[in-house]
Amino acid sequence: MKIATFNVNSINARKDLIKRWLTEKNEVDVIALQEIKCDESKFPFKDFKEIGYECEIFGQKAYNGVAVCSKIPFKEIKKGFQDSFWDTQKRFMQVKIKDINILNVYAPHGEIEGEKHIYKLNFFKKLKEYVLENFDLERDKVCIVGDMNVAKDEIDVWDPELLRETIGFMRDEREVFKDFLSIGLIDLFRECKKDEKGFSWFDYRTAAVWRNEGMRIDYILTSKPLKDKCIDIYVDMWTRKRRTPTPSDHAPVVVEFED
């Protein structure tokens, strides 16, 4: 099974790009989307159905939102944490496809300090609590994907001194994210590509992608039973290095698991 995670920064702005990628370049089985920026009434279900994908979404108008589109039937679907506070912002959904539990996450961007920063830190604490309550990471096949808005280590940013204590590379953000991973989750890209930078986000404003001045903030995290099934994992830069259709500021991360 081939699974991709992709922050599309508006699904309706990116649907033509995604359709080309999925039909011409990389026909993944499952694609988890973040920041779709629409509710269910505006999601382009028909476009995905035309190329063989069924989609489930947890969206909101103009902001946030996540979706999972799959060529393989869904066994289970759960939208949100089932918590009225945390589900006000549509940032999390869970599906089961075959025997893999896929959790799709769009973590808050945050700010340097203040309420949004605290919300971001607490989001990871909530996510940790949810995973511990719902899964046995020694036994279950769990795949947590998405835009985490945190670059974990110095290798995950193009200039650690310049970016230190900026949003996405602040000490407490990195600490709370690493604490989340400590429950038994494996950062699959770093596990498999120890010295590869693997940047997945590049600032639009500075044409940073052409100088490889990016950050690795999109992740595929797995439990050990699934980690052992990994064949390959990589950042697919085709969608990012486009002029038309207009790209997102993120590139998809793709993993292939053996059945």
Description:
By secondary structure, this protein is α+β, with helices and mostly antiparallel strands. The chain has one domain: Endonuclease/exonuclease/phosphatase (Deoxyribonuclease I, Chain A), CATH 3.60.10.10. Helix content is 25%, strand content 26%. The protein is built from 7 helices and 14 strands. It has helices spanning 11-25, 45-50, 115-134, 160-163, 171-181, 188-192, 224-227, and strands at residues 2-7, 30-34, 54-58, 66-70, 74-79, 92-97, 100-106, 142-147, 186-187, 201-202, 214-215, 218-222, 230-235, 253-257. The strands form 3 sheets. The chain has a 6-stranded mixed beta sheet with strand order 3-4-2-1-14-13. A 6-stranded mixed beta sheet has the order 5-6-7-8-12-9. β6 (92-97) and β7 (100-106) form a beta hairpin. α3 (115-134) packs parallel to α5. The model has no long low-confidence stretch (mean pLDDT 97).
